[in-house]
């Protein structure tokens, strides 16, 4: 057997370039440790594309290095390699060590700023270790975890550009900060009890009642266990919090916050604790424990100790795990088990993140405040996800995910700004092949939210060094986002039809350039014919779209009021299909939903005269109408309250479906004809059929009708890829039913996992269309 002696061993040198999310997240120290453990020499540095590594040693060790680098097992939590190229080099003489080369060019502005990340396992161990100098320190962090996006003011991303600039590192912290092999090498927010920020407790007027980290946490825990309401400063802003098992406390929080109905999110300290109240399946568990630590909607268990007022009329409980060190400390206190953790804001205003503002705005709500002096520069809400068909599906994309971009294969030659929609607004910048979405901004019709929007656009434009040459916005001239986009006076502006943007967001996420069948099932958006669209079948690419089918139009009286008062929609449906007679026949039933006969008469007159009545194909409004008919309520107190209640009572064992037929209009457009369905629903209501049956038959019927629409589109186009998007796909039951039905009929289904299906995804679609049309020239 040939055993090569040392002189005969072949030494090779390999250059490895990786791109993706590889900067500012502890990548270089990780690579340094990997290389030195394997006895390889060479170097690593950041460059404008990502990270370049040169390693020298025996080929088997180099192979092992590449394997460990790319398999992700031990890599930093946030590291995501999108591409990896490997090339041979001439070995260097006399190179003995591996070193981190200074990278003068710190990379693209984008790659420097990463999202805020939940406390990592190693930091948690230190937090609980009495011998560690950061034992019980509420701001412990390292390169693998801690705040980033929420504290950065400007680039380059150094400590002096963050809100940590006011704290000077002590010797112990600095030693770790400058040591390349340390987990805290260049961790900008690094701090300890001796040198960093701290927490203190104030009463509702802002008078300090406890000082010192430990005393503050102990007193906050005691107050929470006692049933008090606290405002706690976290990573992206303040939370209002109360014991989630204390009905009185939760009710009081609702009363003081003037939030009567909308479900509250909760937080617990462990998966085991959450499992007491809700089903935690494999995927949901992975999402809860992920570094992004979003709120995850989980199937609730019956008969648990969760206070009824936390979330009524939904199938889900929204839970997240403790994600900041302060949270972990709180859950160690006696009597602190599971907490309501809701964004601290007044009605729909932006999240509060500043100490003084918190006292000013929340003193009537919170009994005490846990304050901290690490300032939050950008407020970021908690992200909210659910599991649809075994995969993550976003309801709100914010903390933990922003500003990680959606990366596409092709570069845009132009910088692009996409303004988004007015509800659930996000905006999006395009630079090269990176699509950077803002966090959830909110509903722009609120003046404070709109100001926050314009300020955020300006801040992120600077942060990512983007000068938009092309601007995209919604077709609706009344949207504030549209008006803002037009005021920017860019070289080019493109107005994108709302539902085309919904489908385009799917094409962008999956990086598809060929045309697909798009089913946009949604609330409302302005159509190219002036009607209010909302249940559309399109043949769409990023270049163009054609509307090939839709829900048949019905008259919608009262515009925006209809989204709150389903009686208007029901009257519109009946009047549109059967005229005034249809309304008179069902008087008794209608007066159960709207007891004031006079109000019904007024709406009917409005329909007859066509005053403030607009044609609509909205599916969202249809859900409102069916919910009210099924007896689930007469008013949406918050968006989609009734549709959520309707979904909550669906039953998987019911296979029956209302029949929806497809008609062709004279232009060959397919129309979903719901006349039969409406008649059947009214019959079932009259016959006292249980609402679970009505709800499930409605969901199944709509699912079948949508699949039939796709079928028609496939016949005409030969395309068998279907993209699903629009707010109605936040409905898990319908999404899973339709996906399954389409797959049974041999369609390939594209369903987003990275970006919300609702209007939070619109800006990505607008941006991708603008890039396709203007970004290639
Ligand atoms: Zn850490
Ligand atoms: Zn220190
Ligand atoms: Zn929409």
Low-confidence regions? none
Sheet/helix structural class? alpha/beta
Helix content: 25-40%
Please list the strands of the largest sheet in the order they lie side by side: 7-6-14-8-9-13-10-12-11-15-16
What is the straight-line distance between the termini?
Answer: 63 Å
List the helices and strands and how they pair.
Blueprint: E1 12-21, H1 27-37, E2 41-46, E3 51-57, H2 59-70, E4 80-89, E5 98-100, H3 109-112, H4 121-127, H5 171-178, E6 199-203, E7 208-210, H6 213-225, E8 230-233, E9 238-243, H7 247-257, E10 265-268, H8 271-275, H9 282-289, E11 295-299, E12 316-321, H10 325-330, E13 338-343, H11 355-362, E14 368-372, E15 384-388, E16 391-396, E17 406-418, E18 428-437, H12 447-463, E19 470-474, H13 480-487, E20 492-496, H14 498-510, E21 516-526, E22 532-540, E23 545-551, E24 554-557, H15 566-585, H16 587-593, H17 597-609, E25 613-616, H18 619-629, H19 641-648, E26 661-664, E27 670-673, H20 675-686, H21 691-717, E28 721-725, H22 732-744, E29 748-751, H23 762-774
Parallel strand pairs: 2-5, 8-14, 10-12, 11-15, 17-19, 19-20, 21-28, 23-27, 28-29
Antiparallel strand pairs: 1-3, 1-4, 2-3, 6-7, 6-14, 8-9, 9-13, 10-13, 11-12, 15-16, 17-18, 21-22, 22-23, 24-25, 26-27
Helix pairs in contact: 14-23, 15-16, 15-17, 15-18, 18-19, 20-21, 21-22
The structure holds zinc ion (3 copies).
């Amino acid at each position: 057997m040939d055993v090569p002696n040392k002189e005969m061993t072949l030494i090779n040198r390999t250059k490895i370039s990786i791109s993706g999310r590889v900067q500012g997240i502890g990548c270089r120290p990780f690579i340094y440790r990997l290389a030195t453990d394997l006895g390889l020499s060479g170097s690593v540095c950041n460059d404008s594309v990502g990270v370049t590594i040169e390693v020298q040693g025996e080929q088997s060790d180099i192979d092992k290095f590449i394997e460990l680098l790319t398999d992700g097992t031990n890599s930093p939590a946030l590291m995501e390699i999108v591409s990896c190229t490997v090339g041979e080099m001439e070995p260097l003489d006399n190179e003995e060590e591996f070193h981190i080369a200074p990278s003068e060019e710190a990379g693209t502005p984008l790659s420097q700023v990463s999202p805020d990340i939940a406390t990592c396992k190693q930091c948690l161990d230190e937090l609980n270790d009495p011998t560690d100098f950061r034992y019980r320190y509420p701001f412990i962090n390292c390169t693998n975890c801690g705040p980033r996006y929420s504290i950065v003011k400007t680039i380059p991303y150094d400590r002096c550009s963050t809100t940590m600039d006011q704290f000077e590192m002590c010797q112990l912290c600095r030693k770790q900060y400058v040591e390349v092999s340390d987990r805290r090498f260049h961790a900008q927010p690094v701090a300890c009890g001796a040198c960093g920020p701290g927490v203190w407790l104030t009463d509702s007027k802002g008078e300090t009642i406890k000082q010192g980290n430990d005393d503050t946490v102990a007193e906050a825990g005691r107050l929470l266990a006692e049933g008090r309401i606290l405002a706690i400063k976290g990573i992206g802003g303040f939370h209002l919090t109360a014991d989630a098992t204390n009905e009185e406390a939760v009710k009081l929080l609702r009363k003081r916050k003037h939030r009567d109905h909308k479900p509250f999110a909760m937080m617990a300290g462990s998966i085991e604790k959450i499992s007491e109240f809700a089903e935690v399946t494999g995927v949901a568990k992975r999402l809860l424990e992920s570094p992004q630590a979003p709120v995850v909607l989980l199937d609730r268990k019956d008969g648990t100790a969760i206070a009824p007022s936390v979330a009524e009329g939904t199938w889900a409980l929204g839970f997240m795990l403790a994600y900041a060190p302060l949270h972990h400390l709180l859950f160690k206190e006696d009597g602190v088990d599971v907490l309501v953790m809701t964004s601290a804001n007044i009605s729909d205003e932006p999240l509060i993140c500043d100490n003084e503002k918190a006292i000013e705005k929340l003193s009537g709500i919170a009994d005490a405040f846990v304050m901290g002096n690490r300032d939050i520069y950008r407020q970021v809400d908690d992200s909210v996800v659910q599991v649809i068909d075994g995969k993550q599906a976003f309801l709100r994309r914010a903390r933990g995910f922003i500003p990680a971009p959606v990366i596409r294969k092709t570069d845009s030659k132009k910088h692009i700004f996409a303004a988004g929609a007015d509800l659930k607004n996000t905006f999006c910048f395009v630079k090269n092949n990176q699509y950077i979405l803002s966090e959830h901004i909110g509903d722009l019709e609120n003046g404070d939210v709109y100001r926050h929007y314009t300020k955020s656009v300006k801040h992120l434009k600077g942060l990512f060094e983007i000068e938009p040459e092309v601007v995209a916005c919604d077709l609706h001239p009344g949207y504030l986002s549209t008006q803002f986009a037009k005021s920017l006076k860019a070289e080019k502006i493109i107005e994108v039809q709302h539902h085309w943007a919904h489908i385009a967001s799917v094409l962008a996420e999956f990086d598809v350039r060929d045309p697909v069948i798009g089913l946009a099932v949604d609330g409302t958006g302005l159509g190219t014919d002036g009607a209010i669209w909302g249940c559309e079948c399109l043949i769409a690419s990023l270049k163009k779209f054609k509307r090939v089918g839709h829900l048949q139009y019905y008259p919608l009286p009262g515009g925006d009021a209809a989204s709150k008062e389903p009686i208007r929609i029901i009257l519109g449906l009946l009047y549109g299909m059967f005229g005034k007679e249809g309304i008179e026949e069902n008087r008794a039933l209608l007066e159960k939903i709207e007891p004031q006969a006079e109000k019904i008469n007024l709406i009917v007159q409005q329909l007859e005269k066509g005053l403030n009545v607009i044609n609509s194909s909205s599916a969202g409004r249809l859900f409102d109408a069916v919910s009210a008919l099924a007896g689930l309520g007469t008013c949406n107190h918050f968006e989609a309250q009734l549709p959520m209640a309707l979904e909550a009572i669906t039953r998987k064992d019911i296979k029956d479906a209302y029949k929806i037929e497809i008609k062709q209009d004279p232009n060959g457009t397919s129309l979903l004809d719901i006349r039969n369905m409406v008649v059947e629903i009214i019959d079932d209501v009259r016959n006292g059929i249980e609402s679970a049956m009505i709800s499930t038959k409605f969901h199944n019927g709509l699912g079948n009708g949508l699949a039939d629409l796709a079928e028609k589109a496939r016949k005409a186009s030969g395309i068998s890829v279907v993209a699903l998007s629009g707010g109605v796909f936040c409905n898990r039951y319908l999404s899973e039913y339709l996906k399954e039905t389409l797959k049974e009929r041999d369609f390939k289904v594209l369903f987003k996992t990275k970006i919300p299906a609702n209007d939070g995804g619109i800006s990505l679609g607008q941006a991708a269309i603008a890039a396709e049309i203007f970004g290639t020239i």
